[in-house]
Amino acid sequence: MLKSFTEKIFQGLTDIKPGRLVLSDAARDEILYKAKRVRAKDYVFNFDVTGSTTQERTETTTARWKFICTGVAFFADNLDNTIPPTVGVKFESLASLSPFRNAEPAEMNRVLTQTVIPFEGKKNSYFPGAHFEEYKNLFAVLDQRVNITVSIKPGVTTDYHAAVIVTGVEVFEGGDDE
Q1: What share of the chain is helix, strand, coil (3-state, %, to 5)?
Q2: 41 near 119, Cβ under 8 Å?
Q3: Quick one: which H or E segment has residue 7?
Q4: Which of 37, 77, 131, 140 is at a distance of 20 to 30 A from 30, taking alpha carbons?
């Protein structure tokens, strides 16, 4: 069976493998402890695209949880006879003491080129007009409280509904008493 990129990251962080034998209470407690501190997380950005105006949506990652972005996917429900949109993802840290918060270099506070979704032009034969772009594997380790901003710039298009999914793994950083 193929593992998703997210599953590989999770197993690397927790050392919890499918089919692992649990032979003691201590082993069970270790698995439960690790499983409570590493979890899968999806951020879903919904868009109702009309006309040619670029739209943006922003979500903020969870406090006390470090987010590791492992993939971005795109879905649209009515892309027949259209030029696909341009989709971009930007990560912006909210750390108030960060020396990079107002930095100008190209690598700071910009859309990462690997997160811009290229369209592969495949048609969905089961749902004409619907289009799903497979997850593009990423590995971006983000701190706590990061703004994830997704922008969508329509091509020549009819109106449609679109969703961008940013998926990954969250690691708890709150403390041992939680």
Answers
A1: 15, 40, 45
A2: no
A3: helix 5-14
A4: 140
Q: Class for domain 38-172, per CATH?
A: mainly beta
Give 157's contacts (C-beta < 8 A, 6+ positions apart).
49, 52, 79, 82, 83, 85
Write down the residue that tokens 């903020």 correspond to: 60
77: tokens are 């429900």
pLDDT tens string 124-162:
555 566 777 777 777 888 888 888 999 888 876 678 888
User: What is the spatial distance between Cα 22 and Cα 35, in angstroms, rounded to a whole number?
Assistant: 14
Residue 136 to residue 134: CA distance in whole angstroms = 6
Calculate mean pLDDT across residues 63-73: 88
**Residue labelled with tokens 């690691």:** 171
Residue whose structure tokens are 């997210």? 6
- Cα(first)–Cα(last) distance of the chain, in Å? 35
Residue with tokens 């593992």: 3
